[in-house]
Amino acid sequence: MILHPTYDVNASGHLTAAGLDTVELAREFGTPAYLLDTDAVRAMCRLYKSAFHTFFGPDSTPAFAGKALCYKGLYRLIAEEGLAADCVSPGELVTAHAAGFPMEKVFFHGNNKTDADLALAVDLGVGHIVVDSPDELGALAQIAAGKGAKPHILLRITPGIDPHTHKKIITGNVDSKFGMAIATGQADDFVKAALASSSLVLDGFHCHVGSQIFDIEPFRDACDIMLAFIARMRQTTGFEAPILNIGGGFGVRYTERDPMIDYRANIQALGEEIDRMCALHGVKKPAILMEPGRSIVAAAGCTLYTVGSVKTIPGFRSYVSVDGGMPDNPRYALYQSEYTVVNASRAADRADFPCTVAGRCCESGDLLAEGVSVAKPSRGDILAVLVTGAYNYSMASNYNRIPRPPVIELSGGKATVAVRRETYDDLIRLDV
Ligand SMILES: *Cc1c(COP(=O)(O)O)cnc(C)c1O
Predict the structure, then answer these.
(1) How confident is the model at residue 161, as a pLDDT?
(2) What is the rounded CA–CA span in Å between residue 174 and residue 171?
(3) Angle value at C-alpha 382, between 410 and 10, nearest 5 degrees
(4) Which terminus of the chain, N or C, has less C-beta within 10 A?
């Protein structure tokens, strides 16, 4: 195993993903290519479902955050596994709908949904629209009334937690483009306005503290603050929220330096905190939702590239250039995100060649990794970047007019194309 159970090395010294030889997959499907071990994705869905059932109660559901990875086949998988879904744009809604996803299990987010987006959500029968602002509340009420519809809503509340500043800095994130803050009193008015609307059905509250969080504390703080808010709203308005959605954000192990995460233990700890707070405030335990994205798909995915050149600059460093880069994975360029890189063609050899992995774009910032070590590659070797299942394909662009790679699903020893590779015709299709 390398980093996650999906990855290993076979007798030919090649990296395997879900038991399949990645060098052979590269030959069959070309590079760059995204691979996704869908059995591992299903295992994560089941882990979440079972832990939610045990520790949050039978009405609680994980909702997969499609912004981490979005294509029709994945929504079909998520539907089969019985998860709800979190969509953040009309494009994601349309993808879910086209896949036959049960739209009543969709939560629709975003800090600036247009009137057209809201109308689409009502028309598609989205289960819950997560209303972000009083402006949006007014617009949705009007749209719903015009259609004779009565959509169910949650309100996006800003609990004021900065997950990366540690230790209960509870004003840390009041300054956010998302939601209405408890600390400023604006959340209270938001709830009253929602309750006053005759064309909307308020079902509860939503919050989201951040992403790639390894610590349980920010989630515990969010539960404390949100349950105290639910209790106070019951006192002041009589409304006792039946749903509390505490967002996504559990971290994922990208390198050996990242800690292992026991998701089930985290959910258990949160469940205990929620029970304690409900008892403390004397409120009925709401149905708990969370929206994991990264932690469901990241580890199950990797990207295969072909090495084009290996250049050592004496006194400086070695560049290994590959046939992809920031168009298929902008995360290093955006956030200096660290990855584990493996020479898939020589995965049994010592990884003793320190290098910078560079993409093919005309842009010096187009790097995939710096300061990594791989078995010394040569032109034609297959390089794998591991743990790219989340925020890679969903963030991919056509920068430098480069076609997007395909998504190849791996399951039960078979590889199938789930999203085909873009062609040059695809690239010019929209040009008039
Ligand atoms: C980004 C986001 C998620 C998913 O976060 P992950 O870190 O991928 O688990 C869930 N809910 C909301 C509202 C988000 O913005």
Answers:
(1) 86
(2) 5
(3) 60
(4) C
Q: Which H or E element spans position 354? A: strand 353-358
Ligand 1 atom at minimum distance from 391 CA? 8
Do 214 and 307 fall within a single domain? Answer: no
Q: How far is CA 208 from the centre of its chain?
A: 12
CA 347 to centroid of ligand 1, rounded, Å: 33
Q: Where are the beta strands (DSSP E) in 207-273?
A: 243-245
Q: Which of 10, 1, 3 is nearest to 345 (CA)?
A: 10
* Dist. CA 96–CA 403, nearest whole Å: 23
Catalytic residue chosen out of the listed positions 70, 207, 355, 362: 362
Residue 411 token pair: 């399951």
With H, G, I as helix, E, B as strand and everything else as coil, classify residue 100: coil
When pLDDT is averaged across residues 297-316 and rounded to a whole number, the result is 98
Residues 183 and 131 in one domain: yes
For residue 339, tell me if it sits in a domain: yes
| Nearest in space to 287 (alpha carbons), one of 20, 78, 122, 61 | 61
d(CA 159, CA 213): 16
Same domain, 258 and 322: no
Give the residue numbers spanning the domain of 136. 109-292
Q: Which atom of ligand 1 is nearest to the CA of 250?
A: 9
Q: Is the CB of 248 under 6 A from ligand 1?
A: yes
Residue 409 lies in a domain: yes
362 is annotated as an active-site residue: yes
**Identity at 241, one-letter amino acid code:** A
pLDDT tens-digit readout, 143-201 = 999 999 999 999 999 998 887 755 445 555 888 899 999 999 999 999 999 999 999 99
For the record, the structure tokens of 313 come out as 């600059």
Provide the percentage of residues in the chain whose pLDDT is more than 70.
Answer: 98
Q: How many CB atoms within 10 Å of residue 192?
A: 13
Strand 367-374 with 15-17, pairing: unpaired
**152 membership: H or E segment, kind and range:** strand 152-158
Q: Name the pTM for this structure.
A: 0.97
Answer whether residue 91 is part of any domain.
Answer: no
Residue 263 placed within a domain? yes
